[in-house]
Amino acid sequence: MTSVAMRREVPAVVEDEVVVRLDEALLADGLADVRWLLHDALLAGARRIVVDLTRAHSLGSPALASFLWAHRICRARGGAVVLRGADRRIRDTVHRTGLGRVLQLQGGDGRGDGRGDGRGDERGGGRRSPAGWDDR
To answer: DSSP per residue over the chain, as a string?
Structure first.
């Protein structure tokens, strides 16, 4: 039996912030690749992971669970997981699950989402629907 050693490259310089870009094709193949991307970023010592969702249109609970897992590690290091460029459907899912108070939401341009401290809570400005969510 032949054994093939797989080698992964981990950056020599520890980056404080790592951006992980997700798209529909990556999510359609299952979450194994997404989990490995998060795992590699954490192994490299990232304190803050920015998940770029500008090309993703929906997230299931397993994806949110993966983000929460990464957030726990980042938080222990003094950082966080930030969801950047989430569309309305994803933002609603994050709020319905209560993760809007845990995961940070950021607009696609890198600025906060207009909700106060950038954590996705309802303290900031913007129009409100009768349910209390931002109508943007």
So the answer is: -----------SSPPSEEEEEEEHHHHHT-SHHHHHHHHHHHHTT-SEEEEEEEE-----HHHHHHHHHHHHHHHHTT-EEEEES--HHHHHHHHHTTGGGTSEEE-TTSSB-SSSSSSS-TTS-S-B-TTS-B--
